[in-house]
């Protein structure tokens, strides 16, 4: 008879809907079971949880499984006190941190509370120059971490140094001719900068070296100044309005007229025919050209007229 009563009680305990703690056949103390779960979860001094969930399971119910190396949750199964058979399952949920890594933003859940531990769990590697807020030895304030990626480097830049053109008047080279003695070449300047970039944006640049590595070479051009005289004639000359008239040289001929008294010269072109034979003059210069070698008031002067090669 006693065995029969015990079997009935055991059967009824199986049917008891102990998902609801108020109806369980034991006194459910949430804080007690949370404390037991924290002890078994073995959270380290640098770890913390954000929230938790507690489920009461019958023996035939299957709870959530712990995934190995899952940084987002820890599942602890506890045996309850009382006649009910089953489990109490406590799930500790890790905090989720917002990590701003340069231009990238990620969310990462981990039980770590210190910045260094969080970044290590997330597999984020810092370079020596990188900045982190908060610092790695501090907890993540407001669950936010900001990484400024810093890159320092030396950058070369080059400038072209243009060459100069040097012209030399050469009395041994016929006028109107030129000769290139040196073609000229550009030089090069090397500039070395120290550059700092944060998250790919340049924030600092300093010139640390300025060096001419190739000197420019001037282009040298000789310009002929030697005048070639094809023929000449001397005699008296005067002036007239607007034209330079001469009988011996045809219109358009380039001539050089020299005042034999003063040695002053002027170059011009024959633009008309004359003067008349009876004047005895060989040349009538235009008034403006005559004024360059003599006072127009002088009237008549002795000149040397030379036909020049163009």
Model description:
The chain has 310 residues and is mostly beta strands. It has 4 domains: 2-93, no CATH class; 96-148, no CATH class; 152-225, Resuscitation-promoting factor rpfb fold; 227-308, Barwin-like endoglucanases, CATH 2.40.40. 13% of the residues lie in helices and 45% in strands. It has helices spanning 2-15, 30-41, 115-122, 287-291; strands at residues 51-58, 73-78, 86-93, 96-101, 104-109, 131-133, 144-148, 150-161, 165-174, 178-182, 187-198, 201-214, 219-226, 229-240, 245-246, 254-259, 265-269, 283-286, 301-308. A 6-stranded mixed β-sheet has the order 15-18-14-19-16-17. Strands 5-4-7-6 form a 4-stranded mixed β-sheet, with helices on one face. It has a 3-stranded antiparallel β-sheet with strand order 1-3-2, covered by helices on one side. The chain is rod-shaped and about 155 Å long. Residues 1-26 have low confidence and may be disordered.
- State the helical fraction: 10-25%
Number of strands: 19
Q: Determine the structural class based on helices, strands and strand pairing.
A: mainly beta
The coarse overall form would be: rod-shaped
Which parts are unreliable, with pLDDT below 50 for 5 consecutive residues or more?
1-26
Question: Strand percentage, roughly?
Answer: over 45%
Number of helices: 4
The largest sheet, given as strand count, sense and whether it forms a barrel, is: 6 strands, mixed
Provide the number of structural domains.
4
Q: In whole angstroms, how far apart are the ends?
A: 148 Å
